[in-house]
């Protein structure tokens, strides 16, 4: 089984003077519960894990970055291959691109997160060093917490140096479940691949 790597764009935060963008929210069922997927016309901008925190709290958290989200529970989801990829934790090819907007500092941390291999993990201090900010561990931790794309940008792979799981915006049980699932997939010799062949 192959791990398909999604195409992730990183962009600057929109100026405060920019009119609020209208976003659509759809809920997708996955092995770890429902995921709230927020998107505009052709781009997915946020993924929130709702199983532990609940849909309303997930919406409240996302509203900090995305002011106008219209939740369409019964609407057809326009990115079918993305739905399949997320449901199978990126074991299916995903042609859809993702967009994560943040400060230059946040973007660098998120880019570094994507370099952590599937079913592996590292500490906040190691992540900070890899991102080029070895003395800014707390700021790096804040950037990790601000990650808008759960699962795709794997912030759940960051744990404490002592081996404890640490905090997770979508709930500690959800984080543990994600890590356990990744280990199970790794044991089935899921090989990493960056193409769709």
The radius of gyration over CA amounts to 16 Å
| Number of helices in the DSSP assignment | 6
Largest sheet: 4 strands, mixed
CATH class of the largest domain: Alpha Beta
What value does the average pLDDT take?
83
Strand fraction: 15-25%
What's the CATH superfamily of the largest domain, by name?
A: Methylated DNA-protein cysteine methyltransferase domain
The CATH topology annotation of the largest domain reads as: Double Stranded RNA Binding Domain
Order of helices and strands: EEEEEHEHEHEHHEHE
Structural class: alpha/beta
Count of β-strands: 10
Low-confidence region ranges: 190-197
Distance between the termini: 12 Å
- Per CATH, the architecture of the largest domain is 2-Layer Sandwich
Summed up, the domain count is 2
């Amino acid at each position: 089984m192959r791990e398909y790597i999604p195409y992730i764009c990183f962009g600057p935060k929109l100026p405060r003077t920019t009119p609020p963008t209208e976003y659509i929210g759809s809920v997708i069922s996955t092995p770890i519960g429902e995921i709230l997927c927020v998107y505009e016309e052709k781009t997915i901008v946020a993924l929130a894990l709702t199983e532990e925190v609940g849909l309303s709290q997930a919406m409240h958290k996302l509203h900090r970055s995305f002011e106008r989200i219209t939740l369409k529970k019964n609407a057809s989801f326009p990115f079918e291959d993305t739905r399949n990829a997320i449901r199978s934790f990126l074991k299916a090819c995903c042609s859809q691109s993702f967009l994560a907007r943040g400060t230059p500092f946040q973007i660098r941390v998120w880019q570094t997160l994507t370099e952590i291999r599937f079913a592996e993990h590292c500490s906040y201090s190691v992540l900070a060093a890899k991102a080029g900010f070895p003395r800014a561990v707390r700021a790096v931790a804040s950037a990790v917490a601000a990650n808008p794309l759960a699962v795709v940008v794997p912030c759940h792979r960051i744990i404490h140096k002592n081996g404890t799981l640490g905090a997770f915006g979508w709930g500690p049980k959800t984080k543990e479940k994600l890590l356990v699932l990744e280990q199970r997939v790794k044991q089935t010799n899921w090989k990493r691949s960056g193409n769709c062949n």
